[in-house]
Amino acid sequence: MKKFVKINFKRSSQTRWSAKHVAVKALLNDFPDVVESLEELKKTSNASEAKYEASSLLNAINNYKLILNLMIWANILDEINRMNIEIQKQDIILARSVSLMDGLMKTLQKMIENLMEYWIEEAKEVAGKIGVEPILPNK
Questions:
Q1: Which residues 6+ apart lie within 8 Å of 122 measured at CB?
Q2: Which of 18, 64, 93, 130 is disulfide-compatible with 35, CB 3.0–4.6 A?
Q3: Which PANTHER family match (predicted)?
Q4: What angle do CA 112, 135, 67 make, to 5 degrees?
Q5: What's the pTM?
């Protein structure tokens, strides 16, 4: 994995939003490299367990719906993280915190209202880099 991916992935924290933001953003930014490293591992590993795990992970992540959800989640976490950093500053006052929370709610509401068209196009770009058909299943 280190041969293809520039950073070390860490587990997402159950409690810290900033850690979730870092974990999701890292995966999204290096998604094509992660896929490439898993394909290489699947082809070249001598360990059958490693080949099986790489194959299973590839089947799970070579999925347009996953890419789309990852992009949406990364951007939601980006907004939350930005606000989180601001409200943790020592010189923050309550009125500013309330204003930041209000701004976050408005931003998230705009994302909900205008979400799909924009994110579908963004996800198509990532999917194209790894050869995944940008098709959402109809259910």
A1: 71
A2: 130
A3: 52 KDA REPRESSOR OF THE INHIBITOR OF THE PROTEIN KINASE-LIKE PROTEIN-RELATED, HAT C-TERMINAL DIMERISATION DOMAIN-CONTAINING PROTEIN
A4: 60
A5: 0.73
With H, G, I as helix, E, B as strand and everything else as coil, classify residue 104.
Answer: helix
Question: What span, in angstroms and rounded, lies between the C-alpha atoms of 118 and 27?
Answer: 20
pLDDT of 62-106, one tens digit each? 888 888 888 888 888 888 888 888 888 888 888 888 888 898 888
CA-derived radius of gyration, the chain: 18
Q: Which two tokens stand for residue 115?
A: 């979400």
Number of other residues whose CB lies within 10 A of the CB of residue 24? 19
Handedness of CA 30, 33, 42, 2 (dihedral sign): negative
pLDDT tens-digit map of 7-21: 666 665 566 777 788
Token representation of residue 57: 């992970």
